[in-house]
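User: quick one
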Amino acid sequence: MERANYRLHESAASLLVAGDQADEGIGSSGVRNQAAIMSAHRVSYTLDSTLDTVNSAEEVASKIATEAGFGDEDVMKIAMAVREAAVNAVLHGNAYDPGKKVQVDFERTAEELVITIKDQGKGLDLNKVPDPLAPENLLKTSGRGIFLIRSFMDEVEINPSQTGTEIKLIKHVHGSAADGKEASQ
Amino acid sequence: MSMKTSTRQVDGVTIVDCSGRITLGEGSVILRDTVRDLLGKGNKKILLNLGDVNYIDSSGIGELVSAYTTVKNQGGELKLLNLTKKVHDLLQITKLYTVFDVKDDEAGAVKAFAK
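Assistant: Done. Structure below.
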C-alpha cells in the first residue's frame, strides 16, 4: 500500500510540472505533511467557453487517467466522458458565451479519480434529458452525451442550479473495493 | 487529429473513405458537407468506410444518424463499412448498430445496394 501511495505522489508531482494552467497543487508542502499529500491530489483549470476547451479537457483527462494507472480502455472512457461533459458545459451550459467560464477539477485519491466540470449556465433541466435508447429517440441527432457519460464512468452526479450545472464523474481505481464488488456481481 | 475523406465510385456506389476523428466541430462538419455534396450530385448510394476512424463522440454519432436519415429521406441508401472496435462498441451501446446497415466486406457491401 505504501508503495502504491508513493507512486501516486510521484505522478502527482510530475503532473503539476506539466500543467501550466493548474490553479493549485501540492508541490510546496513539506515532508511533515506527506501523508496527506500522498492520499489526495487536486488540479483545477478555468477554461473559456470554446471548442478548444473541449479538446483540452479531453487531453488533460487522458493524461491524468494514464498517470493514475488506468488501462487504455478506461483512459479512453474517462477522456470521452470528460469530453462529453465539457461539450455540455460549453454548448448547452455557457452557450459559447465568452464571459462565462468552465471549471474543470481533477482529484485523485488512492481509490478513485474524481472529475468535476462546472459551467455558468442556467442549469440543466434533467427532466428534459431524453432517453436516447427509446425507440422514438433512436434517430435523433443529439441527446446522447449524458447517456455516454453514465455508460463510461462508475458514478455520475449531476447538480444543476441557477448559477450553472456541476457534473461529477467518478472512476474507481482498478482493484479498489468498489471494483471488487462490481466484479463479484 | 482531424477528419479526412476521399470518395471513389465502385459499381454505382460512392465509397467515402473516412479517417481521423468524427467529433464536434470540424470532423462532423466535413462528414455533413461530404454527404450533402454527394446527394447534390445525385449520388444516393453511399458507403461510409470508417475503417480508419479511431474516435467518434456523441456529436459524431449524431452526424452519422443525420447522414443516414438525410440519404434515406432522399430515396437513397447509406451503409457503414469496416467499423473499428471503438465505433462498433459505441453503436452497440447506443442501440444504433441495428439501425445502420453495417458491413465488413467492401465487395459484399457494394453488392448489397439496390440495383
